Amino acid sequence: MQFHPAKYIRKPFIVCALLGFAHMAAAEDAAPGNYRIDPAHSTILFSVSHLGTSELTGRFNDIEGSFVLDKDKASKLDVTIKTASVDTNHEKRDAHLRSPDFFNVKQYPVMRFSADKVSYDPQGKPTRINGKLTLHGKTKPVTFVVSPVGAGKDPWGGYRAGFNASTTLKRSDFGMNFMPGGIGEEVTVALNIEATKE
Fold first, then answer.
1. Which 8-state DSSP code applies to residue 123?
2. pTM of the complete model
3. Using CA atoms, how far apart are residues 187 and 57, in angstroms rounded to an integer?
4. Which domains, ranges and CATH numbers included, belong to the chain?
5. Per DSSP, what are the bridge partners of residue 166?
6. Average pLDDT, the chain
7. What is the pLDDT of residue 27?
8. What CA–CA distances, in Å, run from 3 to 6, 8, 9, 16, 63?
């Protein structure tokens, strides 16, 4: 019996996806330069204790931003998130999270993380980002621990780099005090960022 690849791979985008995997298999350390965050391939996740019995998880679906990556020069990062894009996979809860009890999206439609201090290890990989988070009308210092994922050329002639970053916030620091005890004070935040080099 003869095998006919065309019978199984009929769509060009499937071929592109396979080429993408081949490129990423040879991932490298991210090259210095200016990067633009790719919203379609980036995610901001959060989790918080609920009633002391479980962890509620959610995400924000609207993110944009850019960063400069260069251990020998001034590195910086600027990320903007629309608070109304909060998504916990529960329509009624999401409406409550958008209300004045929580994010108060009408008064504070965006949150922003801005940083101009990046720490690198001896191999030149970023390890920590120190900056300021503006949320719910308050601005506080925040440090993210960074883990590079990889970098390399993509199937469309561009260059991409990916990073994971995480931190833990106290929601009361940002004036979000609704239902203390029932909802945890500490919120874990995780950024999974993919960006294109400009």
1. T
2. 0.83
3. 10
4. 28-197 (2.40.128.110)
5. 145, 190
6. 89
7. 56
8. 9, 9, 12, 21, 44
pLDDT in tens, 20-69: 444 444 458 999 999 999 999 999 999 999 999 999 999 999 999 999 99
Give the amino acid at 11. K
Cβ-defined contacts of 152-155 (< 8 Å, 24+): 152/23, 152/24, 152/26, 152/27, 152/28, 153/23, 154/20, 154/23, 154/196, 155/16, 155/19, 155/20, 155/23
Beta partners for 168?
188
Residues in the chain: 198
C-alpha–C-alpha distance, residues 50 and 121, integer Å: 37
Give dist(CA 83, CA 137) in Å, integer.
12
Task: Chunk the chain into consecutive blocks of 10 residues (it has 198) and report each block's average pLDDT, rounded to whole numbers.
Answer: 46 42 58 97 97 96 96 93 98 98 98 96 93 98 97 96 98 96 96 97
